[in-house]
């Protein structure tokens, strides 16, 4: 910039500009610089003159601030003035400002002009008594006297004469004010009370109708069988109508007319609470709205409902209590019957849940031997047909486990016992795990499974990792199941849903698709698209119903778009919270065992068949295996020898797996102990992990899960 200014001085002429100079102490100051070209002794020189303008700049800044303040104050004043004018103009009562000396109107608002019929100019040309009847002359003098003595008048009532000639009632009040030039003015508030007068007239008519209504109320009480009572708080007198005697089962001639006559009729167990409610209502600290039982002279017990209001004097002292009673015995009996039925239904649901859980355990135990054995069969020695049969047997076993899990989840949801965890998790880990689990099916079908995660997607979320995976696995499994050729695509995006960050999961396939009727049924329990779908592809019809329940529990939504023969597209929105906390990871499966020749593994399992299955599965790891029959033997073995990992069954004789794990943890806190159990419900798994197990493997044992656990702890 300096070179440019100097060049311009030499070529274009003198330059004047503002500059920033540095002092010797490092501080800077504003400077006004002028540059002029000079020729001396044949040399081209530049004369530079600098002037310190710090004070000038400071003064300019202060002027700018002052100017800004003036503008702000002026704007605020104008704004308040505008508000004040709007208030006067739009006020729902008439407002007028008059000069005291000659009565000239300085201002009237819209409301006064509306109900008087005159504008300001018309009023200024009128005599005062053209608007006010002469009969109010004395009253007007008194009001002007009050204005003179105390600076205000009213409120008082009179009439105005409308422009059209009729009179109408008004209420006036006002104060004396000063104008900006010191003149005395009257600011009056004038209210058209025509409507209020009409109301007063209507009240008189209503009062006459009240007597008629009293008769009607009596008829209504007769119809509804409502008894009306009145209690004089001061004298203690109690007055009942005819229906009160019927409700209490007594004769009028036996009624003492005292407060005790009511309390003596109550069942003793209900007396204290009912009395307290009445005392609190009278004291003004509660309401009287009890239910109580009364005992008729013949021994019959009826349940009554009461309600009352307290009548007080101007000081708030209770004078009377007026209330009603009506019989709710039949209603109470119906409620009790419903409660009994509900209790029985809940017991039945609990029994069903326990039965399903026990059945799951009983089915999983032999299934462990079946599926475990099938997984260990050497396929190299089998012919083509045998390999196909083996493959179908493994697939059928896994399908049976899926059905068991669906039934158990349905049972939990139905009994409202399914709860969601709130832990940090990685959504990308879930995608990887789901793709791994369906990989074998995808490969066998020769279709493509593709995932696409948006670059801006946040990986870490807060929620139930197991249930989120269950939702995605169900959607992807269905897409793979119903797709014979083409592809299944998973898209993951982060969106804003109802002003909250949310996960958007889209699963699109090129499968068989669905018509409108089928789409309407896919979320129904025990239902699939149609009977042909069930016959061809199998399933319980619970999967999508459970998926929908889980999505709703998370506050999300699901949208299905499909056409027959053209595939299906499902979008799920899960409004979860983003987190930066350390995340929970899914245990990754592995189809290949690690070489564990130097590792010692203790297996605690009471079932001989399961012992053989587990040993066969671990044979290829070359680990040193020790097998015991119960928890007590496991504790003794762990005391004698250092193991690298323990596989612990839960239900065993003499000492179960939980107790054995806790005993071992007392003297060896570092050894990983993995629960082996047929109790595979999410709540059961969470319970085992909270009690101290490091991991969980469900029965029937999936060899990929087993190898994944070993790789996680021993590799």
From TrEMBL:
Domain Response regulatory: 600-714
Keywords noted in UniProt: Phosphoprotein, Two-component regulatory system
Domain (Histidine kinase) ranges: 358-578
UniProt KW Cell inner membrane keyword: no
Domain PAC residue range list: 288-340
This protein's record includes keyword Nucleotide-binding: no
Source organism superkingdom: Bacteria
CDD domains documented for this protein: HATPase_EvgS-ArcB-TorS-like (cd16922), HisKA (cd00082), PAS (cd00130), REC_hyHK_CKI1_RcsC-like (cd17546)
Catalytic activities: ATP + protein L-histidine = ADP + protein N-phospho-L-histidine
Residues recorded with modification 4-aspartylphosphate: 649
EC number annotated for this UniProt entry: 2.7.13.3
Name under which the protein is recorded: histidine kinase
Native species: Paraglaciecola algarum
């Amino acid at each position: 910039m300096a070179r440019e200014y100097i060049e311009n001085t030499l070529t274009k002429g003198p330059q004047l500009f503002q500059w920033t100079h540095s002092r010797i102490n490092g501080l800077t100051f504003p400077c006004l610089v002028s540059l002029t070209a000079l020729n001396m002794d044949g040399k081209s020189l530049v004369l530079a003159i600098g002037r310190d303008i710090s004070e000038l700049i400071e003064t300019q800044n202060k002027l700018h601030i002052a100017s800004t303040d003036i503008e702000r104050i002026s704007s605020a004043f104008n704004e308040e003035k505008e508000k004040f004018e709007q208030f006067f103009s739009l006020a729902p009562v008439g407002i007028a400002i008059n000069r005291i000396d000659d009565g000239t109107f300085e201002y009237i608002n819209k409301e006064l002009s509306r109900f008087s019929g005159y504008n300001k100019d018309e009023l200024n040309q009128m005599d005062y008594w053209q608007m006010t009847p002469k009969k109010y002359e004395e009253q007007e003098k008194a009001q002007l006297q009050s204005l003179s003595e105390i600076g205000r008048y009213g409120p008082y009532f009179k009439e105005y004469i409308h422009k059209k000639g009729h009179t109408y009632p008004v209420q006036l009040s006002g104060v004396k004010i000063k104008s900006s030039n010191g003149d005395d003015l009257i600011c009056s508030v004038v209210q058209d009370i025509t409507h209020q007068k009409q109301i007063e007239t209507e009240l008189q008519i209503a009062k006459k109708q009240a007597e008629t209504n009293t008769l009607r109320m009596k008829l209504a009480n007769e119809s509804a069988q409502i008894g009306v009572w009145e209690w004089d708080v001061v004298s203690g007198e109690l007055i009942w109508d005819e229906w009160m005697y019927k409700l209490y089962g007594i004769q009028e001639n036996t009624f003492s007319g005292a407060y005790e006559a009511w309390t003596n009729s109550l069942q003793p167990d209900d007396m204290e609470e009912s009395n307290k409610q009445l005392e609190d209502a009278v004291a003004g600290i509660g309401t009287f709205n009890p239910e109580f039982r009364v005992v008729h002279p013949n021994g019959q017990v009826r349940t009554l409902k009461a309600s009352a209001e307290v009548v007080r004097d101007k000081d708030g002292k209770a004078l009377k209590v007026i209330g009603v009673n009506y019989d709710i015995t039949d209603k109470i009996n119906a409620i009790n019957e419903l409660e009994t039925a509900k209790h029985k239904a809940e017991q039945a649901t609990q029994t069903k849940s326990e039965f399903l859980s026990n059945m799951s355990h009983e089915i999983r135990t032999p299934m462990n031997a079946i599926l475990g054995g099938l997984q260990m069969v050497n396929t190299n020695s089998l012919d083509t047909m045998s390999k196909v049969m083996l493959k179908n047997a493994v697939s059928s076993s896994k399908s049976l486990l899926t059905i068991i899990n669906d039934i158990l989840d349905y049972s939990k949801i139905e009994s409202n016992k399914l709860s969601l965890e709130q832990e940090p998790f990685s959504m990308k880990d879930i995608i990887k795990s789901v793709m791994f689990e369906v990989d074998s099916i995808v490969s066998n079908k020769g279709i493509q499974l593709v995932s696409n995660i948006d670059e801006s997607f946040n990986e870490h979320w807060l929620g139930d990792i197991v249930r989120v995976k269950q939702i995605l696995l169900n959607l992807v499994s269905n897409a793979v199941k119903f797709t014979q050729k083409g592809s299944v695509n998973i898209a993951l995006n982060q969106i804003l849903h109802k002003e909250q960050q949310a996960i958007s999961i889209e699963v699109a396939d090129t499968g068989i698709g669905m018509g409108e009727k089928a789409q309407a049924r896919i979320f129904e329990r025990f239902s699939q698209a149609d009977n042909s779908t069930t016959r061809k592809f199998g399933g319980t019809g619970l999967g999508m119903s459970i998926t929908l329940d889980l999505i709703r529990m998370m506050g999300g939504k699901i949208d299905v778009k499909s056409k027959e023969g053209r595939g299906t597209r499902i979008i799920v929105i899960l409004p979860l919270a983003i987190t930066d906390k350390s995340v929970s990871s899914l245990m990754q499966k592995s189809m290949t065992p690690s070489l564990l020749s130097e590792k010692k593994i203790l297996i605690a399992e009471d079932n001989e068949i399961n012992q053989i299955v587990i040993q066969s599965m671990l044979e290829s790891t070359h680990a040193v295996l020790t097998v015991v029959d119960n928890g007590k033997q496991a504790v003794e073995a762990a005391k004698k020898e250092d193991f690298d990992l323990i596989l612990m069954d839960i239900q065993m004789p003499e000492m179960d797996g939980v107790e054995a794990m806790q005993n071992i943890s007392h003297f060896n806190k570092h050894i990983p102990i993995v629960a082996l159990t047929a109790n595979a419900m999410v709540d059961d798994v969470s319970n085992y992990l909270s009690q101290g197990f490091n991991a969980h493997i469900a029965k029937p044992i999936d060899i990929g899960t087993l190898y994944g656990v070993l790789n996680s702890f021993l590799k």
